[in-house]
Radical SAM superfamily enzyme YgiQ (UPF0313 family) (Mucilaginibacter pocheonensis), 473 residues
Amino acid sequence: MKVKMILPALTEAESPFWRPIKYSLFPPLGLATLAAYLSPDDEIDLQDQHVEQLNLNDTPHLVIIQVYITNAYRAYKIADHYRAKGAYVILGGLHVTSLPLEAAPHADSIFIGPGEDIFPMFLTDFKKGCPQKVYRSTIRTLEKVPPIRRDLIKRHLYLVPNSIVVTRGCPHHCSFCYKDAFFEGGRTFYTQETDDALAEIDRLPGRHLYFLDDHLLGNARFATSLFDGMKGMNRVFQGAATVDSILRGNLIEKAAEAGLRSLFVGFETFSPQNLKQSNKKQNLEKDYVEAVNRLHSLGIMINGSFVFGLDDDDKDVFKRTVDWGVKHAITTSTYHVLTPYPGTGLFNDMERQGRILTKNWDLYDTRKVVYQTVGLSAQELEDGYWWAYKEFYKWSNIFKGSMQHHAHAHKLKHFFYAGGWKKFESVWNFLIKTKNLNNTLPALETVLSKITFKKDQGMTAINEAATMPALFE
Ligand code: B12
Ligand code: SF4
């Protein structure tokens, strides 16, 4: 059977603010995960529109499309195109799960929730000639899932081909997050068996890994055995975790020993009222600075996530947030305009209050204001969002942030990582155009390698005497 799998490009692909590098980071892991359930005899063509021109002139029997909120309209068009040609088209992913009724007219079958239970079920029905219209996931397990079809991924087109997920979901329930809506009807947080996760890691070439898990430290027992198992594997990796998990126990030390070098942390807001509004209880009364210092003492760089536009925000929130990030040496910051995704608690609250201003999903890219604001006008919010990015990534602020670290090596890493990510757009574009992106991996691995501290000076000591190459393992 000829199977076409498509990740349509997000709408931002046509925006003047489009940063090709941001969308050439990760391969389509969800689709490669599903491909593992197809037969070895199937002829599979997996296309990611972020990095390649879609070929729509082919004639597959089955078309599988992954739908995110801001590629939804494009996904529906592609689906209609293939249905008109007689292919059997199926749609799934986050947006289909949030709005199945919207997606259904464009598909022969739709899928609600994760695919590991319902996709193989569909394939059996499809082969028998009796596929159902709707498949709803209820069995949540990652036990005995077949190895991801990484052979279908065009590795050279991505900066981070080694992306991996070893858990699904998250133990928390923030009201702006997709998590509860997507995993409704079953377990909302579950992990792989440690041995399976280690085997998957072992299959990945090179040193660098990026864990795309929502919360890599979310299950302490699993994370402990994972990091213990990874200790001898000579990997460097990045991931995401919450403030409270960094402060609790010694899991973060174990992660650092296993190779964690950079962490995405959801600080989101400094206002307790905002935290309550977004049900982000795990951040309440937590000392953000203590979490930051703990990460820095372990040589871990921080990508801080912040959201603007919660009801307690005022005009000063942008400056406060940027200044805090620079002062505390946050390496990179990701800012978002609060976005109420359909299906989330936040969306339902705002809908009830009559605050949703548009349901044009193309605008739900976390850069535009789509709801009635309270403490700020929509214009102030969008202007403040763009100001914050510009301000945080000014050379002077990158320099200032870097210089806050004690260790000389950490200063350099911070400077190169933040500067490299935001300041060399034309270089990134050239590498993407010439399909050389993957060749920059060794440089990334170098920046992410371990900082060597002098033992007698403790973990935060400055290794000033060391020369540049000696600073990196
Ligand atoms: C990688 C990633 C990206 C990549 C996406 C491209 C890519 N190559 O995948 C990039 C960097 C481009 C990106 C950008 C953004 N992202 Co993003 N991203 C992720 C991330 C971290 C991992 C995705 C992943 O690989 N998951 C693992 C795989 C195995 O799961 P999966 O893809 O969901 O696939 C499974 C199911 O969905 C299902 N499935 C999917 N498709 C189909 C189709 C069929 C037919 C079937 C049967 C099943 C099925 O089966 C798969 C196996 O279970 C997720 C968080 C997360 N943990 O998922 C956020 C996430 C998707 N991103 C998010 C956001 C907010 C963004 C941005 C807006 C951020 C920003 N401000 O720029 C942008 C734009 C996204 C948009 N407009 O929708 C939100 C989405 C919220 C929402 N409701 O849409 C998420 C969920 C993070 C979060 N916790 O809030 N992102
Ligand atoms: S901690 Fe992060 S992933 Fe978990 S529910 Fe909150 S926003 Fe979502």
Remarks:
- Residues 455-473 have pLDDT under 50 and may be disordered.
- The first strand starts at residue 2 and ends at 7.
- The CA atoms of residues 270 and 320 lie 9 Å apart.
- The pocket of iron/sulfur cluster (ligand 2) is lined by residues 170, 172-174, 177, 179, 214-215, 242, 266 (CB under 6 Å).
